[in-house]
Amino acid sequence: MGSFPNLRIRLPLVAFLLELLMIILFGVFVRYDDESDASKPDDLTGKSTFLYRYPSFQDVHVMVFMGFGFLMTFLQRYGFSAVGFNFLVASFSLQWATLMQGWFHHFQDGKILVGVESLINADFCTASVLIAFGAVLGRTSPVQLLIMAFFQVTLFSVNEYILLNLLEVIDAGGSMTIHCFGGFFGLAVSRVLYRPGLKEPHRKASSVYHSDLFAMIGTLFLWIYWPSFNSAISEKGVNQTRAVINTYYTLASCTVTTCILSSLVDKSGRINMVHLQNSTLAGAVAVGTAAEMMLTPYGSLIVGLILGTLSTLGYTFITPALEKYLHVQDTCGIHNLHALPGFCGGIIGAITAAAASEATYGSRLHHTFPSLDKHPGRSLGGFQMAGAVVSLGMGLVGGTIVGIILKFPIWGATTDEDCYEDRAYWEVPEEEVTYIHTVTRNEHVKEENTVYEMEPQSPAD
Predict the structure, then answer these.
(1) What is the H or E stretch that residue 108 is in?
(2) Are strands 30-32 and 111-114 parallel, antiparallel or unpaired?
C-alpha cells in the first residue's frame, strides 16, 4: 500500500473558494423567475410550467445523483468514491451550470432568472460532467474532479450555445450536447492523464459479485427514468409524448439486443454483467436527438438494435484497442455508452430531420423544427450533422486542454499502486483486504478468480 495524499488543505481550500465564488455570483446575478417570485401575481391561468416540468425534473435528478452514482460502484474497493465524489461534483456542477447557462440563455436586465426549467438544464449539464468522470474513475483526486467540473461546465455551455442558438439544431435528449461532448471530453482528459504504470490490469480495477450488483441498481434507475430525461425539456403535448414513446421502445430493443450480443461474443455463451449494466442504455443515449421527431416506433426499435450491437462490441473490442494503441484508459467504458452513441445520435437525428416533410408532420413541421420559420428551405439534416461534429471537436480539444491543467502535480492525485482505492480519500471500516481479480471493463484480463490477499492495515497506516 503506497503513501496516500493528504488533502486536508487542498480539498477544503479549493472547495471553499469555488463555493464562495458561487455565493457571490448568485447574489449578484440570480433571481427567481416570474413563476417563483413572491412579488409577482400568482399564475391563475393554468399556464405555469412547474406542474408538468417538476415530475420530469425529479426523474432527471434521480438519474444524476443515484443512477450515475451507483452505476460507477462496480469497482470492488471504490464504492465510497464512486457515490461520494459523484455527489460532490454534481452538487458543485449544478450551481456553476445555473450561472453559465443563465448568462447564455436567461439573462435579462443584468439578471439570471431561474425556474424549474433552469434546474433541469443544470442537471443536464451536470450529467455531462459525470459522464467524463466515468472515464477517469479511480485515477483522479476529488480536487482534480472539481477543477475538471469547473472547466467542463464552462465549455459545455459554450458548446450548447453554438448548437442550440447559432446552428439552431434539435437535441431534446442531449445526444450531442450532453453525451457526445461529455464522452469525448472525458476520453481526451483520460488520454492526457495516461498512467503507463497502469498499462497492465490493476488488481483493484475489477469488480466482485456484490459491487456489480450495486452497479446494476444504477443501471435500473437510469433505464426506468430515461424517457423523462429525453423528454424533460420538450414542449408539452405531442413532442413530449413522442420523445417518451421513442425512448421507451429504444431501451427495450437495446436491452434484448445486448443480451443477444453478449452471449454471442462469449465463448461459453454467457452474458457479461458489464454489457448489461451499460450497453442496455446506449440506445437511449443515441435516440436523444431524434426523440421528439417522427422516428416512428419501429424506427426506435431499429435504433435500439443498432446501438445495442455497437456498444456491446465496443466493450469487447474497441475499449481494449483504445488503451493499447491510443493510450486512452477508459475506466467505465464511456466511449461505448456515451461518446460513440452520442455521435451516432447526431447522425440519427440528421437522417430523421433530413427526411422531415409536411407529408409526415403536417402543420406541425415548423412546430417541431422552429428554425424553418427564420430559414425556409434550410438543410435540416446538414445542420444537425454539423452539431454532432462541433460537439465531438469541442469535447476533444477542450478535454485535452483541461487534461493538461489537471496533470499539474498540485491536485493530490494518488500513486499508481493506490488507484481505485477508497482508503486514499475516505475513512473506511477496518477489515481484511482481499482483492479478487475478475474481468475488468476493458475485458483483457484472461485469468479469472485469481485471489490477491493483503495483510490487514493498522489504523496508523
Answers:
(1) strand 107-108
(2) parallel
Distance between CA atoms of residues 448 and 266, nearest Å: 14
Give the alpha-carbon dihedral of 192, 130, 141, 393, to 10 degrees.
20
The span from the CA of 421 to the CA of 198, in Å, is 14
For 211-270, write each residue's pLDDT tens digit.
Answer: 999 999 999 999 999 999 999 999 989 999 999 999 999 999 999 999 999 999 999 999
Give which of 310, 315, 260, 319 is closest to 283, Cα–Cα: 310
CA 32/CA 453 separation, integer angstroms: 56
Copy the grid coordinates of residue 115: 425556474
| Radius of gyration, alpha carbons of the chain | 22
Which grid coordinates are listed for 380?
A: 435540416
**From CA 240, how far away is CA 123, in angstroms rounded?**
18
Q: In DSSP terms, which residues pair with 454 in a beta bridge?
A: 433
Q: Which long-range contacts (C-beta less than 8 Å, at least 24 apart) are formed by 150-154?
A: 150/18, 150/92, 150/96, 151/398, 151/401, 151/402, 151/405, 152/93, 152/128, 152/182, 152/185, 152/398, 152/402, 153/93, 153/96, 153/97, 153/100, 153/125, 153/126, 153/129, 154/96, 154/100
Pairing status of strand 111-114 against strand 107-108: antiparallel
In the beta sheet, which residues pair with residue 435? 452
Q: Order the strands of the 107-108 sheet from edge to edge.
A: 30-32, 111-114, 107-108
Beta pairing, strands 450-454 & 111-114: unpaired
C-alpha cell at 190: 483520460
Q: For residue 76, what is its C-alpha cell? A: 470492488
Q: Which amino acid is at 138?
A: G
Write the CB contacts of 105 (distance below 8 Å, at least 6 apart in sequence).
Answer: 121, 161, 165
Return d(Cα 290, Cα 191) in angstroms, integer.
30
Beta bridge partners of 112: 30, 107
For residue 7, what is its C-alpha cell? 488533502
**Placement of cell 446538414 in the chain:** 382
Q: Is the dihedral of CA 182, 325, 317, 267 positive or negative?
A: negative
pTM of the model as a whole: 0.92
How many Å separate Cα 73 from the centre of its chain?
15
Over the stretch 254-279, which tens digit does the pLDDT of each residue have?
A: 999 999 999 999 999 999 999 999 99
Q: If DSSP codes are grouped into helix, strand and coil, which group holds residue 264?
A: helix
In sequence order, what are the residues at sequence separation of 6 or more whose Cβ sits closer than 8 angstroms to the Cβ of residue 127? Answer: 60, 63, 64, 68, 174, 178, 182
Place of cell 497492465: 200
